[in-house]
Amino acid sequence: MRKRITSLFLVLALCLAMMPTAALAETVDFAAQTPPAVEEAADPANGEAKQENQPAEQEEQQETPAVKQDEAVANVQAMIDALPDAAELDGMDDAARDAVQEAFQAACDAYYDTLTEEQQAQLKNTEKLAALSDWFSQTETLAEETGHPDHPICGDVNCEDSSHALSSGETWTGVDSLNKITKAGNYYLTGNVTLTTAWTPTDGVVLCLNGYSITANANVDTIIVKSDRTFTLTDCEPAGKEGKITHGFNVETNKTHYFSGVVVSGTFNMYGGSITGNNQSGKAVAGGGVYVGEGGIFNMYGGKITDNISSSGGGVFMYKKTTFTMENGTITGNNAGSGGGVCVVSNVTFNMKDGTISGNNATRNGGGVCGATDATFTFNGTVNITGNCKGGTLNDETGKYTGGTKNNVHLFPEQNITIGAGLTNDARIGITTTDKPMENFQAQFATDATNTALNYAAIFIPDEADQGYVVIKGEDNKLYLSAHQHNWTYKLKEGTKDTIIATCDAADCTDKNGGSVTIKALDLVSLDYDGKPKAATLTGNDWQGLAVAQIAITYKNKDADTTLGTAPTDAGKYEASITLGEGNNAVTASVEYTISQAFLQYTIPDDVTAVYGDTLAKVTLPTDEWTWENPEQSVGNVGEHTFNATYTPKDPNYKKVSGIDVPVTVNRAPITISITGMPEGPIAYGDTFVLTITQTGDSNAVPKNWTKFSHDRHLKYLKDASHPEEGKFKFQAIGVCSGNGCSRDFTVEFESETHKGSRTVGTPTITKKTLTKDDLHFGGLPTFFTKDYDGSTSFTKASVEINSSAKVDASDALPEVKGSYAYNSANVKEASKVTFTSEKTESEKYILPAGLTVEHVATITKANQAELTVTSDAATYGEDLTLTVSGGAGDGAVSYTVKNGTGEATIVDGSKLHPTKAGTVFVTATKAGDNNYEDVTSAEKEITIAKASYGDKEIPVSAKIGSIKTVDLTTGIVPGGSLSWSAKHDDFSVVENPSLNDSTFSFTVRNSEGVVGKIAQVSYTVSSGNYADYVLTITIKATDKDKQTGFKFENGNVTKTYGDAGFTFAATGAAKGSTVTYESSDKTVATVDANGKVTILKAGSTNITATAAETADYEQATATYTLTVEKKTVIVKAKDQTAYVGDKAPALGEDSYTVSGLVGEEKLTTLPTVKYVDADGNEIAPDMTKTGEVKIRVGDAAASGNYTICYEDGKLTITTRPSSGGGSFRPNQKPTIQGSEGAKTALSADGTKLTITVEDGYEITDVLVNGVSKGAVAEITGLKTGDKVEVKTAKKTEPTKPTNPTKPSADKKAKLVKGVQNTTIVVKTKLTKDGKILLTWKKSKGYKVDKFEIYRSVKKNSGYGKKPFFTTKGGSRSQYYLNTKKLKAGRTYYYKVRGVRIIDGKKYYTHWSNKVWRSVK
At 118, which helix (H) or strand (E)? Predict the structure, then answer.
């Protein structure tokens, strides 16, 4: 990949030399406002975001010396001051505007990258940056020129002036700036154009230089044609002016600016103009005039490429799968290391049809053209590639390179020119090859030299003619460069017929020995016929004559004495020969060889037959390729025999094969037969009869030889052992026939070991067969018949069929079965069978008589009832409704279900609807089946439940005068009821300030003389969903004391477990000054102190009562809750035991179980029993004679009434004693484990390892082994017999809540927030080769962010939404994001970016970045 260096601005050179700069890749749009907070979102599926590794940013700028700060501010201020106002840009040309844009970007970069916030505040006139940003953000439109309607695309120079006023049908637009060309179309220049950045034309642009120049005044490519675009260049050259694409002179370096004139990745069509003066001298880049990159196409129809310099391809450089077609034009005066005119590498196609490549120079290879071995050259037309050199010098007058050595087209090994069909004799092409011709080597350089009218030796000229090289054409139509031409004489090598030696008789020849060439046949194995040519081979030994591959071999058939055109294929004798020299110098060498016949795979005939007594001469074989070796041989006895035959293939290339065993089947000879016993009268279909048959002619025959019969279709031969007499055979009538319907053609056949014969007689009349009851059965499935109850005995689902055994022949058509079917009863329980009674029917061969009966087991199943309907439709809340139905059938009971709707209800007493909420419900009825009917369920019936009448209610209240009283009205309000004011009756003004809050009524009792004892009433109307409205009246009586109505226990009853710690549950709401006391109703269960603290003593239940004492203003009050103390669970677990086969079973005692769950030091009142038991729980003695497991059962323990005891079984594992290891340890001898509350222990099988786990809410505090602390560990290893382990636990305490983390000070936080909000971001974008959009951005230094949010829209100034399109995972200063999804071709997408910093849980945002956009192709 070539390295591209973007030039820096020309204006403000001194300032920019001290500051980092970068050219903006897109239009920028700066926004200074701080964005509002938005909801965070991310969509990783839209693409991917990555960040570069960056050093951690400091929260604040590092302090720098004041002198350096002043210097930095002064530098940036100078850059801003030097920028023109935005209004001045309208009058500038492209080059000046480009310079301003680069200077503007450099000033922005310096502003954000080199200055702190304080330094930025010192700058003046910063509004100029915003104005310039707005100007550069605008999309320029083309200036539409008038008066220039047409222009040709021809590369011609015949336009008379610059008006382009021709009529070729194309409309042309004049432009003075390339920035005005923003869409496809035809354009011409109205003046010279200067560039400082490469111009990238839009797809479909056609540009006429119109005699003007496009000059790059920077180290950039002048024009770049992108991969998805086509650009066409022409030049009408008005008044003889020549349009140019070139680079200008750099006054600073005193050299021409470098890089290519045109860089092509798409398609570049050149009809005119000159690409010249593009100098890459000293740079490792290629393609001075034109650089064609991967996949690019360059079509040159005219114009010139001249005076360009590069390391490779001074004029044109082609790289990697590109195509260059040159149909005209000139490439001259260019210079390069390789390929002065044209250089092609890496699978490039170069088609040259016309045009000139001349006067170019290379310092290495290919003054004119240089190409890699995988390049393809095709030359057509009048091509001129001459006058190019290697190591030459430039002639300033002619503009061409001369001197040095000729070097036009340089070809590497195996590289060839393809000669096109259109090449003319006027073409001239100089040739240099890397591989030099030698006396015994010719350098091939071209193919397809098939045109006999062309003088290839004149067209192709060896560049190194002084070496005596000449161009010769081989018989293979390829062209070669050849050295000295030997004059060979030939002769056979002495004593051989197959070897020719060559000697050169030229007087100046220094090496007269031309070596030898030998003709050889293939080896014997390869000479068997296989359908492939058997060619002789040639071998050279120091051979210098005609190339061995070019020596022709002649073949002759020795058997037929004929000459062959190609190497022989068929079997036979042949001679192969070569002839070198002509006339008297002609010498022939030859070799003879034989192609042997091959063996052809054959198939032995398997269907050959003969007659007893024949010879093989009468036996026919399948084809004439087969013949009998002994035709007069007898075929022998009847049976299978084999005889020798010969197979002679028709194809002479295959061998004849003799002695092949061919199988022959010998059949029997004929005899005379007589037949007696044929019935004369009619017989029934299916009847049988016996024939007596005799034969004359085979005296050795036995009865078994009567084997085959050909008889009337109505008869069938039965091989019946009941007729063993000689010559007797049994037949059966298998058809019905009478008169002419019965043919008289009974034929019998005789076969013996040696003979065969037949005889024919007539047959009798045959009548139909009459069926019986036994021929009938019920057919079809299921075999058990049934129907739904319908009150009748009729049955239509069954069908009686005739047994298949009744058929004489399986293919017979039986009569149709007709008749009646009837149950023996119409009722479900009584019905048990169906009886069929037949009617008479007939078929072709059978009669079914009437009156035949057949019975079959059958049942009647219950029928479906008629549709069931619920007829009830209304109910009242609080009143049960008896439900009713209509429909159904039978005697079954009716049941109901209800589904709630807006109302609610249940079913009670089986058939009553019990409303629980007014509204609508849906009832479904089900009527049960009986003996003859199934259950039936109704459709849902909607029933409306009306509200109930509740009646007016009264709540009496006593209240102290002068007090504020609240009354809970809940008892007088129906569930779900709401209150509304109704009335007040207070003749004595007892009540003041009445108010209602939800269901609480508040008021003040007037404190006046005479009020005590007086009564007032306040009424409210109560409305609810289930009751009709009613009046709730509060009757208030004035008193001189209040009740302590708020005195209570807040949380209701309490449940605890024996062993739980004490707890405090105090009553609340006592009046001020009232003393509260507590009492337990059962002090054996729990006691309570003066503060309400309860101490649990045993399991049981007790009431805890609190009493609030009377005061001057309040009466005494009490509150009670019930304390239930449940029993604690104690687990008694049998310990697992182990023993070896042959040992005694381990004794089970007090150390063979564990107890957990006892409180404190309490113990079991009765120790458990431990015993070995079987699967049924019966006590057993373990069988210690074999391995296995025995259950250990623990039980019968007792504890105080405070406990519930649970038991867990253990097991005895009996294993085989290890074969070695010794030791005195017994597997049943283990340490003693003492557990603790909340702990579970597990001892390993060998008793050496203890694992401890604890329940939720507990923790291990210590583990003691033989009284020695091991700490709060969960595992103890290395235990021994007799060790005592004690586990101690305790309940966990609540962890101390962590203190809040230290927050930044208010001043520091304010500084952080301001720093983040003043942070800026610059975004750039590009379109990748595969059509994706790449964003890159850089954040200003100073304050870090946690992440970046990317917003996207299809409109520039709206449509970005409130949620980000993508959110990155980090906040590195430099990042990129690749938008790979949700992209549509032809649409433009706009992007902006901002950073996010979270401080004390709140989000703060940076400035918005500039807006960037890209269009998707």
Answer: helix 117-122
